[in-house]
Each structure stands twice: as structure tokens, then as C-alpha cells.
Write a structure and sequence with these properties.
Helix content is about 20%, strand content about 45%. The chain is built from one helix and nine strands.
Length: about 110
């Protein structure tokens, strides 16, 4: 009986977690030819969100933000996600560590 109750509780918890993750706003970022599109990404302040980062190549790219303590290396053709916790209003810089001269961007939380 306890086993069934624990299983049911865990199932409900897992379902609610999956639903919560699916409700999270998702923003897309493209890295291509050493550039980042869009260069400025606006997100709502104090809201958890997902950033879908795609590298169209031709070489490797790295999303890095020292301010946000995030780093993600992508081979050409790879798409990966980063989850950001609620941010205070402000502008947060990020860059492509493989292309620091041309690959600059910022996330603006409003």
C-alpha cells in the first residue's frame, strides 16, 4: 500500500514538474559565422526562462556570460538549452568565446 502511494505521489510530482518546464518561456539565439542573432535579447525580469542556442557554424561556438555564470560550447549544427533563473532588471553581457571580436550580445531583463 505504501509503495503504491509513494509511486502515485512521485508520478504527480513528476507530471507537475514536466508541466512547469513546458510552461517556461523559451527564447532563441542563433550563432553563425562568428556572429550572434539577435545581439540584444529582451526577457521579462524576475521570470525563469529557457534559452535555446543554435550554432549554424561553420565552426564551434561558445555562449559565455561571466555576469550570469553560464557557459555552453556548441559544435556546428548543434542546438542546446540553458535555463536562466529570474533576473533582476538590467543588462547582462554575453559573448562567443571563439569569436570575441564579432560575437557580442546582451540579455536585457525588463
Amino acid at each position: 500500500m505504501k509503495q503504491a502511494l509513494y509511486s502515485a505521489f512521485f508520478g504527480l510530482f513528476l507530471a507537475s514538474t514536466i508541466t512547469f518546464a513546458d510552461d517556461m518561456p523559451t527564447y532563441k539565439l542563433l550563432m553563425k559565422d562568428g556572429r550572434i542573432y539577435p545581439e540584444t535579447l529582451e526577457v521579462p525580469a524576475m521570470t525563469r526562462f529557457r534559452l535555446e542556442v543554435k550554432n549554424e557554424g561553420p565552426g564551434a561556438a561558445e555562449f559565455e556570460s561571466l555576469e550570469l555564470k553560464k557557459e555552453l560550447v556548441l559544435a556546428p549544427g548543434v542546438t542546446r538549452n540553458l535555463v536562466f533563473y529570474p533576473m533582476k532588471p538590467g543588462a547582462y553581457k554575453f559573448f562567443d568565446d571563439f569569436h570575441p571580436e564579432t560575437g557580442q550580445g546582451r540579455i536585457v531583463a525588463k
